[in-house]
Amino acid sequence: MFGMEDRAPSDGTAASILHADLDAFYVSVERLKRPDLVGKPVAVGGGVIVSASYEARAYGVNAPMGIRQARELCPRLIVVGGSFEDYIELSDRVFEICRTYTPFIEQISIDEAFLDVAGAGHLFGPAPTIAASIRADVQAETGLPISIGIARTKFLAKVASQAAKPDGLLVVDPAHELEFLHPLPVRAIWGVGVKTAELLKEMGIDTVAELAAAKPGWLESRLGPAAGAHLHDLAWNRDRRHVERHRGAGSVGAQRAFGGDVKDRAKHRAILMAIADRVGSRLRKKQRAGRTITARVRFNDLQSVTRSTTLRAPVASTEALYRVADHLVETALAEASEGRGLSLLGISVSKLVHSPHLQLELPLLDRRTVRADVEDVWRSGSAAALARDRLDEAIDELRSKFGKSAVAAASALGSGRSLVPDQFGDLAIPVAERRTE
């Protein structure tokens, strides 16, 4: 929980929130190293595209499309691999530039962030001037194009940045917000994916104006109470969220995008074990353990959901992370799958502590709400838990001597090779969950 000192100063009446979004970031970075790619249809990825240039998008190429399909749409497509260290370095440089204008930055991925500049006007001028200065500084210091939207709310600032692309700046005057917002298609609303857009279309809703005109009760009856009310609020630009700056490392996470439409729970579990292994190894290397475990699920229509639980004792065991994450994924599928397959799974661990040496035998989860095997297979301080800790230590030692691929859990071997390199999946999770220093 952040204190008031971490909350941005905007009073919600002026257009002082910026959404800064690097354009086709991975492609743009590759073009810095290879100027011959400028102006050509380019995609970054492995078996699946994770970023496409605007020239490629003109042919219908986009993420997370398979390479074969992309080449059918665009035979001249140039596909390059990823430069993960370069992406992190340049991202850090860009958002350090932003921090020279305001400390109120909420970085939500490697290539985008919200900024609140309400308190920076006396130093740097009004919000549009600050945004223009940031764009110029980023271009001069990194060579990267960046689009910025400016509005009174976070929601509308993000919509504006998308409308400003590529390499543009758009200010939404508070006096004309609905004039800008209402003509847009419902897909412009942050969080409306393919599935929701199709459902809204069946309901006769194609534009934000039509969504705003719908009766909230009717929307809630078709979309569910939470989603219906939320989308109706956004259609009227009712968004009370503040820009929250992250205080520092709060969690460790990893995820895997595997493409396609995977419905096989055995494959889900194999992938989760591989992810739990990566997260657990990172935690133990940093001598950390955490109490809150979050599972991320992305369905094949790109809608994402998260489920989390807070344990009574911190854990860093691969087995513990896997069991809890599998339970959370099972819960998400029961509540929201609607028969859809998955294209991504992720695990993150927060509420971290240093090197816990727990001796008490404590239940990890509420027995009333979990499967028996999740709570009973291991408890902190039990003989089974201590045995698993020793196993993790042995595996970590072998990997430190012979490499990461020297040993793996047999159940994780069925996860197969990820069509999207794991490093790309890690870059996509919130920045606060990628760092623990």
Structure description:
- By secondary structure, the chain is α+β, with helices and mostly antiparallel strands.
- It has 3 domains: 1-173, Reverse transcriptase/Diguanylate cyclase domain (Alpha-Beta Plaits), CATH 3.30.70.270; 182-235, 5' to 3' exonuclease, C-terminal subdomain (DNA polymerase, domain 1), CATH 1.10.150.20; 251-433, DNA polymerase, Y-family, little finger domain (Dna Ligase, domain 1).
- The protein is 41% helix and 19% strand.
- The chain has 17 helices and 12 strands.
- It has a 5-stranded mixed sheet.
- A hairpin with a 3-residue loop joins strand 2 and strand 3 (49-52).
Instruction: Tell me the number of structural domains.
Output: 3
Specify the CATH architecture of the largest domain. 2-Layer Sandwich
* Unreliable parts: 356-368, 372-383
Report the sheet with the most strands, covering strand number, pairing sense and barrel closure: 5 strands, mixed
Number of strands: 12
CATH topology of the largest domain: Dna Ligase, domain 1
Q: Indicate the radius of gyration in whole angstroms.
A: 23 Å
CATH class category of the largest domain? Alpha Beta
Tally of helical segments: 17
Tell me the span between the first and last alpha carbons: 18 Å
In one word, what is the shape?
globular
Q: What structural class do the secondary elements suggest?
A: alpha+beta
Q: Write the element-wise H/E pattern from the N-terminal end onward.
A: EHEEHHEHEEHHEHEHHHHHEHEEHEHHH
Q: CATH-wise, what's the superfamily of the largest domain? A: DNA polymerase, Y-family, little finger domain
Helix-residue proportion: 40-55%
Kindly report the average pLDDT value. Answer: 81
Strand order of the biggest β-sheet: 5-6-1-7-8
Report strand %: 15-25%
